[in-house]
Structure formats: structure tokens, C-alpha cells
Amino acid sequence: MQIRKLLLGCCLIGPLGLLAQTPPYTLGADKKLNQFNIERWTPEEGLPTNSLLHLYQSSDGYIWLSGYGGIIRFDGQNFTSYNKKNT
Prior knowledge:
Layout: H1 2-20, E1 52-57, E2 63-67, E3 70-74, E4 79-82
Antiparallel strand pairs: 1-2, 2-3, 3-4
């Protein structure tokens, strides 16, 4: 039941919260694109799915992803899935 509330909150309230936040970070005008770290995550790197709907970074630093199969939390090292099977 809690996962449904969390999913509902992410889908309905999450996008509104993104609009109310401070302006997003931008790439520095003094840096070239190749000076930034770029990482890509796929199932080979531990991402549970390639089909994602939403992306959100919480104030504690976690990156939250929503997909068709549930919610995924990324702590910078590992992905943790929350779905009907494990909640």
C-alpha cells in the first residue's frame, strides 16, 4: 500500500515540486563539454530497466527514478528497486 502512495506522490506531486525548486544547474560557460564527467547506466551497470518515466534528486542526494515496474533509488553506487514484489 505504501508503494502505491509513493508512486502516486511521484507521479502527481513530484513534477510540481520540480517546477517550484530553484533554477536548475547549468553547464558552465567557461567549460567545454569534454571537461564534464559523463556516466551512463544500463542494465549491464545495474540499472533494473531502460524504460524510465521520471527522474528526481532528493535533498539527501539520492536519485529517484520511476518506471513502469516501480520506483528505483540510486545512491551513487547501487540501484535499489521498489515494486509490488518486494514492498
